[in-house]
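quick one, two chains, predict together pls
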Amino acid sequence: MNTRVAGLRPGGRSARVQAAVHLAVHDLTEQHGRAALTVPLIAARAGVTPSTIYRRWGDLADLLADVAVEHMRPETDPADTGGFASDLFTWAEQYFEEMTSEVGLGMLRDVLSATPGVTPRTCQCSAFNAAQIAVMVDRGIARGEAVPEVDAVMDGVVAPIVYRALFAAVPPTRDDVRRFVDRVMASATTR
Amino acid sequence: MNTRVAGLRPGGRSARVQAAVHLAVHDLTEQHGRAALTVPLIAARAGVTPSTIYRRWGDLADLLADVAVEHMRPETDPADTGGFASDLFTWAEQYFEEMTSEVGLGMLRDVLSATPGVTPRTCQCSAFNAAQIAVMVDRGIARGEAVPEVDAVMDGVVAPIVYRALFAAVPPTRDDVRRFVDRVMASATTR
């Protein structure tokens, strides 16, 4: 449904509007910070009318959530480092760095605050992670390695990174990530 | 700093105003739903002026976050069921039921959306949980039982419940909670 700013499908006016608006949000956030964003400001920068934005996205919160989800969409498969445990640690470390950065935290909040309840959008963030983990698990199985279940990695690695990023007084550290990965590797089995 | 609606300290006008406003939020949410809340509506119900609310809380999001944190504050120690593993499962099951309910999800979102970044308020939610878990762990140690670290319970039980409640397409189930508890019990040691 959404077009990525970086991977715009050529053609359709709708796709071009979407890309221009996403890009405007991105640029304005970088220049003025997220708190300064308004629909009229974004519209002016994207060269569309505010009503175009309201028609397509409803309100600013919804637009910001849409941009955040697109930003979270992985652009490539996780790096192949030659072994499952190091693939997972490398991926988890990168995910942790992103989610504990100001930008990453802002995205998590944008996605959560747009609409009440669990939405297709919040689920999409979770599905992106599950898909990345599944790629690593499949690669591990193909190598004949012992691997954990995708759900076990979601619960044991992704969940504590996000929970600590959102709620903990002290943000998670690289050592925490290492411990999460080690703990989930203890449940790995050959399939 | 905050006064609980249910446990109002007698005396101080400030405490009475806080209790009245919290109670108004609670009653109006129940009657009209959260989306209908406005500062003037809450002020009228609480018998204070809107400017009293703005002066003390800044804005509606901040007030709702304050109410949510107070609601999350545990009223009693976790039930003593005679053994650590069943104490933890009983507590986790109750926490899971609360956090996956519409009210619980609304509270999580209220706390997260009030102010950007990790705040004393988001940390307080996490500290409430850690304190409840510490009570169970200490009780287990006193009984001579093998117990996990408090942090391991936060990462292995609380985090996946909250992450799934906020992001997963399918909410966590009682069986998931059981599995989270079993997994963390595997790391228990006698101290």
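Chain B has two domains: 13-58, 72-190.
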